Queue: 2 jobs
Job 1
Amino acid sequence: MVTLVEIDSPDDPRLADYRDLRDVELRKSLEAAEGLFLAEGEKVVRRATEAGFAPRSFLMAPRWLDGLADVLAASEAPCYVVSEALAEQVTGFHVHRGALASLARRPLPTVESVLSGARSILMLEDIVDHTNVGAIFRCAAGLGFDAVLLAPRCADPLYRRSIKVAMGTVFSVPWTRLPDWYDALPTLESAGFTTVALTLSADSTDIEEAVRGLDKVALVLGSEGHGLSEHWERAASRRAIIPMHAGIDSLNVAAATAVACYVTSRR
Amino acid sequence: MVTLVEIDSPDDPRLADYRDLRDVELRKSLEAAEGLFLAEGEKVVRRATEAGFAPRSFLMAPRWLDGLADVLAASEAPCYVVSEALAEQVTGFHVHRGALASLARRPLPTVESVLSGARSILMLEDIVDHTNVGAIFRCAAGLGFDAVLLAPRCADPLYRRSIKVAMGTVFSVPWTRLPDWYDALPTLESAGFTTVALTLSADSTDIEEAVRGLDKVALVLGSEGHGLSEHWERAASRRAIIPMHAGIDSLNVAAATAVACYVTSRR
């Protein structure tokens, strides 16, 4: 059973997990150092706890308590009850979705365990925008992809903005970081996946052709700015494009991922 | 030939078009009142002028002058040359793409002229997020859609953020506002388009089935939050979904648009 704790000072040290949510750099280092992440909004907080993440604490204004009553009842973590003005003062923005929770990160699973039983996966190289990472997870979940593997420099799926755009699917789609960028694609090939890089290369074929009839597929996606590294592009066993209308060379990475996942899911 | 004008005071009234670019509400009213829009970055500024929009002025630090020399040479508008610090002070952010231009809006074309010769179009109801509007235009352009029609409350394609996310495709894809929300869909049907609403309705069919073999198609898309109004949903002659994996009900609107445009472009 949760303990409700009313707090009326913005300087209360128990609010440390919730400070300055708009300061991306500060949050990144604080969340890594403390091993926490933040969930925002009733639906997302619920999904995080349902996925088995352990709450460190909750923070909300009184009017949000009822909506999460069952989640709070099932938790041992404290719930800090604050005014909306104080929540805004601490977090640095108007928390219009109401409830926040700070949850403990878990150790990342091994690549092997994430791939176990998977038939369609995404490999993200250096996608640095949290919105894009979130949108890609939502596509993966909606279009039946089984797992997501992230290169070391890819943005964090458990960052608040990623979680929100992903509608919490970062909790349900298995994912991990690739410990080894250099040999990532050969590792996937050894595990029986055909690696298909989405890239504007001279030998790229239509994505429908590239995935047709394949069993296990890893779609390989590069960064928003300069696309895939040459190393990953050449290491992939196939290169594919989404055919574009004259004069336009590409879609944004989330839109391209949606189309590529859709096509691959119907291979 | 452009006139280069060095400006060193942030209060110079000639910089009025460029003030407070991060204040969305202020910008919306200023840009509507003055009949202007802003383009940001060499590529986008170039595309705007190539599309025939008349510059009111340019604003840039000296190091960006060379890259746009040809555009500036072809223009009669003044180019305000400022330090990067002054640009930041006036606009309210670090202009890392360098060049800005203020351009004159043009009267919106009629619906009839936008539809002339079109075979695949998008109708956006109340998509209020500039990023989504921009991403949708980029999809439309890349996947060969001929025009975009916007309901009265849809976000502005010429807002700086929309233009940027669209990579300037808002200048090349014909678009206009629907003057009449209520009868918009019957108007399209009268013009020979089958209206296909993307929506989770009891009678929605798979998008591939819904568009198969159709000649002129209008894909109808609703807002990010609550989807289509019931009026537009029922006014459409067909309702369609992108089949989703168990437990996930939808993609975000830009991803869904990408998939729907892709499928429709191959009907």
Note: Chain B has eleven helices and twelve strands.
Job 2
Amino acid sequence: MSTQPRQLRLGAFMRPVTIHTGAWRYPGAYPDANFNFAHMKRFAQTLERGRFDAFFMADHLAVLNMPVASLKRSHTVTSFEPMTLLPALAAVTEHLGLIATASTTFDAPYHVARRFASLDHISGGRAGWNLVTTSNPDAALNFGLEEHVEHDERYRRAREFFDVVTGLWDSWADDALIRDVESGIFFDPDKLHVLDHKGKYYSVRGPLNIARPVQGWPVIVQAGSSEAGRQIAAETAEAVFTAQTTLEQGQSFYADVKGRMEKLGRPRDHMKILPAAFVVVGDTLDEALEKRARLDTFVHYDSGIASLSIALGHDVSGFDPDGPLPEIPESNASRTSRQRVIEWAERDKLTIRQLAQRIGGYSGLEMVGTPTMIADQMEAWLVGEGSDGFNVMFPYLPGGLDDFVDKVVPELQRRGIFRREYEGATLRENLGLPRPENRFFRA
Amino acid sequence: MSTQPRQLRLGAFMRPVTIHTGAWRYPGAYPDANFNFAHMKRFAQTLERGRFDAFFMADHLAVLNMPVASLKRSHTVTSFEPMTLLPALAAVTEHLGLIATASTTFDAPYHVARRFASLDHISGGRAGWNLVTTSNPDAALNFGLEEHVEHDERYRRAREFFDVVTGLWDSWADDALIRDVESGIFFDPDKLHVLDHKGKYYSVRGPLNIARPVQGWPVIVQAGSSEAGRQIAAETAEAVFTAQTTLEQGQSFYADVKGRMEKLGRPRDHMKILPAAFVVVGDTLDEALEKRARLDTFVHYDSGIASLSIALGHDVSGFDPDGPLPEIPESNASRTSRQRVIEWAERDKLTIRQLAQRIGGYSGLEMVGTPTMIADQMEAWLVGEGSDGFNVMFPYLPGGLDDFVDKVVPELQRRGIFRREYEGATLRENLGLPRPENRFFRA
């Protein structure tokens, strides 16, 4: 009797086009992709060819608050809005999951429930909702609030928001719409529930004016890593995007969140934990390292030096950019990131400029190497319970995406840890998640 | 020297699938079209083949408040949400304008500005925003408000909302995004404007995190007919959907609104007035009348009798449904609609049941006849300044739409009053509307 090895789940982090600050300047990149739908369509179709679980679109509700010197160099400053982009991508793909961020602090539960339900119907069951509480204080100023809502308060609101949204999704029994042409009865009124929610933060009558989503509920995604964030994830999330930079950190996060689920009586495999991984593929290690280094050369010193100072907990803008990093006194503020930067500086013999470019470009978990090396790393995380897969970030587009799909995916498939064909028709089925029962209408 | 005759503009009123209550039961109809994207795609592509200006999706923010007896028979109860459906249709069409309703009472200006700007980029300049103040009091209960906002207050808010949204659309100069790969400058900071709006109802800092829309602004559409509605339309609208039931009424509305524009210094042709027209096409008049009558047989008596009583200003539910309409005393409540119903009853010799089915199905302006007769009527409205075109409602789908495109459109084209090919690349260009200047960055 053979058992299938644990399967890797792969999301693609596609906001905005790619995460790396220098990516739009990489040879062959599409600098205008933020507003060029044809490019987005090509990316989505390539991801589908590579059997990715989902296209994930993060979001901001403001222009990022950065000094103008770095902002003007940032291709992340403006791009398509996720809930309008994803339906368009739904129309040109068949299997790819479509996950968007929506804020529980700056949107209304009725709107959020409705739009995700609609996307789920349009896409035939491929929608996912990344529930965020929005930590960018500039967003508050775009929504009539002088002060940003405080962290824990945001999470209490988020929890109730979640209850309202899922309650609205359950407004209609799955079989409520009869559409009996003969009798003229369009739906069975006994299968329509009026939510009548009156809570601490929200008062929402319902019912939702959208039939129950194809998936019952769109897949619930979260990305918070604070205490409150982990707890709400354990209670509600079915996929978690996280930012663990080492396997040990990943294992600790994985054990913590899955442990919380167990305490709540939720089966551990009803949530997929997917750390962000920045993947640079080369036919040789040298080629991969060269691509990685080349990418950093497209990051302007101005965009990186402030980030480097923050990571070190020490202002280094006064030092010679082309000299080595001098000894930096310890600070309590950011011990982990400080340590990582110092290790990089020593290992790769980087100048302050190069360090600034590294940090200003991207500074989370990365996998740089041959397809075999990358598959080894991914497998180690999977087998070692550091994750259930990854939310992949491509270093530049379309090249970095093409390389991953053409070179890494076949290696993962050869090892039997990644699908060759989509298992199901919906995102939920592909992720191996159960379909939620309707709380008002038990089957 | 020949001058081109005035050109007809045609929108398609597609919410939800079609307006007539019995339409989903008509032979050949798609009862599941509300949640079947393949059908919506077919409709949109047919409209494009027929050179329609736009697909218009109306909206409600609640399940319609009707007695269950009629609600359960209504295919309008639940369907796709417009701002998720239209981007999906954008991906499968090339020329068709895409107009959605968004509420100034229950949504935030930053969200509305962003989504319509995004749709405009996704579609290459084909978005339109139907600005509504939302008159359905049930909507308030889905957004945490116990009482609905009062009518004139809604319009004052709407006016400020409009200023904020258009101000946000002007956040970026048209040429702000330089994307200079060589220097690494993505945009020119001097071409980004922070709105910093602080008004009576809204406080919105900006800038919008979406580049200026392809059309400058998506086309501004309105549908209000009250005093406040006409005035805000004259001030801001570029297309007006209206519900005038006779040419005389149409002429009076047209003269009034265009007169208001002139007083404000706006050229009259910077707004297209498009009354709703329910069009039933037959190869003979008899065939068209038979289709029309057949359609009404699919409306249940329960769905019509309440509407009939309201239209007459008198409860007629106690009379014999299969007898003629008895003499109804005059009432002040609804003189025009009462008169129209009595005329129908006499002219078409309708029983109370048939009248109820007529009123319960659809009761606005209709054009029933051969392609020539319909083109005659449309031309009379156009030449007589009753309208600039129509927002066409199809009696059932796909048949009623196919008939219009295959039979009426060629007749309109033959007369030289409707395009054979799209004139421009954007909705604005096809409608013959100017591109708004950016108030912060004059060219």
Note: Chain B touches chain A through 76 residues (CB under 8 Å).
